Amino acid sequence: MIEFTFWDILRNLLLAARWTILLSIVAFAGGAIAGVAILLLRISKRRWLRQAAEYYIGLFQGTPLLMQLFLLFFGLPLLGFRIEAWTAAVLGLTLCASAYLAEIWRGGVQSLPNGQWDAGSSLGLHYITQLRLIILPQAFAITRAPTVGFLVQLIKSTALTSIIGFEELVRTSNAINNATFEPFTVYGLVALIYFVLCYPLTRYTKILELRTARQH
Amino acid sequence: MEYALDFGWLNGAIGMIASGAAMTIFLIAVTTVAGVILSIFGAAAKRSRYPILRKAIAAYVEVIRNTPFLVQLFFIFFGLPRFGIRLDPVIAAMLAMTLNMTAYTTEIVGAGLDAVPKGQREAAAALGLPAWLVFIKIVLPQALKVIFPALTSQIIIMMLESSVVSQIAVRELTYEADMLQARTFRAFETYFVVTIVYLGMSIGLRRLLFATGRRAIAGGMA
């Protein structure tokens, strides 16, 4: 049996945390891009597009993320795609993030007064230009706090990718635990690492909320 | 080779899926009741006169909200036996879910209590009601009415998150799905069916809570 000191455990966990951070960043970036696309459908003038986006959001918010990951992990190979844990993890979290972010930003868009659209039209701006210059910047600014709040949720969600075999923080900690039989130390440290990642963002959310509250 | 979807196994699997779903519903029911009751105490403690109590509740809420549920579950199930606390998987799942739920609902219930105007309390006190009766009959029903949508969302989020407790071998819906796919070798179809079941449960739960809860809260306690 290999002897693990406390520092060995910590070092291995910190190395694994890099994958948690990378996955969070990639999924958030991908989710933001796809989320804007879903948002555009969700606020479209065509009813069936709005409806389709609503179902998409409802599907991802109404089923467990773990099931979404399983379906991708086992489903995509059936369609002929070779898939690894990393691909399924990124894809699953991106799709899920796009649904949540689209819904958050939709709230921002709908809270804007209609006059903002009218003013854009009266300046002769095209629909896309109105969105780009007037509507979306304001919608993003209003919803900054819930967006950062969702990032915290996303970081925590990456823990589920350990179940489909992606070597991030939790999966590494399971392996270390099996070798050391020190579950209290190992999972305690893992919780601490997640806390260090998430707590600053949570504080930032609070500050943003207070700032918005003061403006109104 | 073309892969053909096959749902033929479903006939013999309905019993397993149903018993898994029943376990999931049982877990979320226990968690909801325990979580809401505890979070009323939590929210009250956070507004108490004792700074230590306030700080302790705040710390608990932050620790739970900034760590993944899966890690909390592993910590309770694998970590606690070191201190001689050996829990049955179902008990560990209920404990982890309740601790997780309470951290979120403490904030929600607290916001609801703050939303009840002070005059309500004063008017009730002026009528000579004792403090606990003021809280139960006047403040709490109004607070619950305000927070009802947020509470419903949190209950549904927790139900979906409970799929994770399959990892400590609690025989709920996801665990049964894992067993089924190992037996049928039809992983995609199995998880597809179970995902639809989850979707139906979350839609159904939302409808049920909105249909019955609102009336019960508004009329039942007052």
Automatic annotation (TrEMBL), chain A:
<feature type="transmembrane region" description="Helical">
    <location>
        <begin position="20"/>
        <end position="43"/>
    </location>
</feature>
<dbReference type="GO" id="GO:0043190">
    <property type="term" value="C:ATP-binding cassette (ABC) transporter complex"/>
</dbReference>
<dbReference type="InterPro" id="IPR035906">
    <property type="entry name" value="MetI-like_sf"/>
</dbReference>
<feature type="transmembrane region" description="Helical">
    <location>
        <begin position="85"/>
        <end position="102"/>
    </location>
</feature>
<dbReference type="GO" id="GO:0022857">
    <property type="term" value="F:transmembrane transporter activity"/>
</dbReference>
<keyword id="KW-0813">Transport</keyword>
<keyword id="KW-1133">Transmembrane helix</keyword>
<keyword id="KW-1003">Cell membrane</keyword>
<dbReference type="InterPro" id="IPR043429">
    <property type="entry name" value="ArtM/GltK/GlnP/TcyL/YhdX-like"/>
</dbReference>
<comment type="similarity">
    <text>Belongs to the binding-protein-dependent transport system permease family. HisMQ subfamily.</text>
</comment>
<feature type="transmembrane region" description="Helical">
    <location>
        <begin position="55"/>
        <end position="79"/>
    </location>
</feature>
<keyword id="KW-0812">Transmembrane</keyword>
<feature type="domain" description="ABC transmembrane type-1">
    <location>
        <begin position="17"/>
        <end position="205"/>
    </location>
</feature>
<protein>
    <submittedName>
        <fullName>Amino acid ABC transporter permease</fullName>
    </submittedName>
</protein>
<keyword id="KW-0472">Membrane</keyword>
<dbReference type="GO" id="GO:0006865">
    <property type="term" value="P:amino acid transport"/>
</dbReference>
<dbReference type="Pfam" id="PF00528">
    <property type="entry name" value="BPD_transp_1"/>
</dbReference>
<dbReference type="InterPro" id="IPR010065">
    <property type="entry name" value="AA_ABC_transptr_permease_3TM"/>
</dbReference>
<dbReference type="InterPro" id="IPR000515">
    <property type="entry name" value="MetI-like"/>
</dbReference>
<feature type="transmembrane region" description="Helical">
    <location>
        <begin position="184"/>
        <end position="202"/>
    </location>
</feature>
From TrEMBL, chain B:
<dbReference type="InterPro" id="IPR035906">
    <property type="entry name" value="MetI-like_sf"/>
</dbReference>
<feature type="transmembrane region" description="Helical">
    <location>
        <begin position="90"/>
        <end position="111"/>
    </location>
</feature>
<feature type="transmembrane region" description="Helical">
    <location>
        <begin position="123"/>
        <end position="140"/>
    </location>
</feature>
<feature type="domain" description="ABC transmembrane type-1">
    <location>
        <begin position="21"/>
        <end position="209"/>
    </location>
</feature>
<dbReference type="GO" id="GO:0043190">
    <property type="term" value="C:ATP-binding cassette (ABC) transporter complex"/>
</dbReference>
<keyword id="KW-1133">Transmembrane helix</keyword>
<feature type="transmembrane region" description="Helical">
    <location>
        <begin position="12"/>
        <end position="45"/>
    </location>
</feature>
<dbReference type="InterPro" id="IPR000515">
    <property type="entry name" value="MetI-like"/>
</dbReference>
<keyword id="KW-0472">Membrane</keyword>
<dbReference type="InterPro" id="IPR010065">
    <property type="entry name" value="AA_ABC_transptr_permease_3TM"/>
</dbReference>
<protein>
    <submittedName>
        <fullName>ABC transporter permease</fullName>
    </submittedName>
</protein>
<feature type="transmembrane region" description="Helical">
    <location>
        <begin position="191"/>
        <end position="209"/>
    </location>
</feature>
<feature type="transmembrane region" description="Helical">
    <location>
        <begin position="57"/>
        <end position="78"/>
    </location>
</feature>
<dbReference type="GO" id="GO:0022857">
    <property type="term" value="F:transmembrane transporter activity"/>
</dbReference>
<dbReference type="Pfam" id="PF00528">
    <property type="entry name" value="BPD_transp_1"/>
</dbReference>
<keyword id="KW-0813">Transport</keyword>
<dbReference type="InterPro" id="IPR043429">
    <property type="entry name" value="ArtM/GltK/GlnP/TcyL/YhdX-like"/>
</dbReference>
<dbReference type="GO" id="GO:0006865">
    <property type="term" value="P:amino acid transport"/>
</dbReference>
<keyword id="KW-0812">Transmembrane</keyword>
<keyword id="KW-1003">Cell membrane</keyword>
<comment type="similarity">
    <text>Belongs to the binding-protein-dependent transport system permease family. HisMQ subfamily.</text>
</comment>
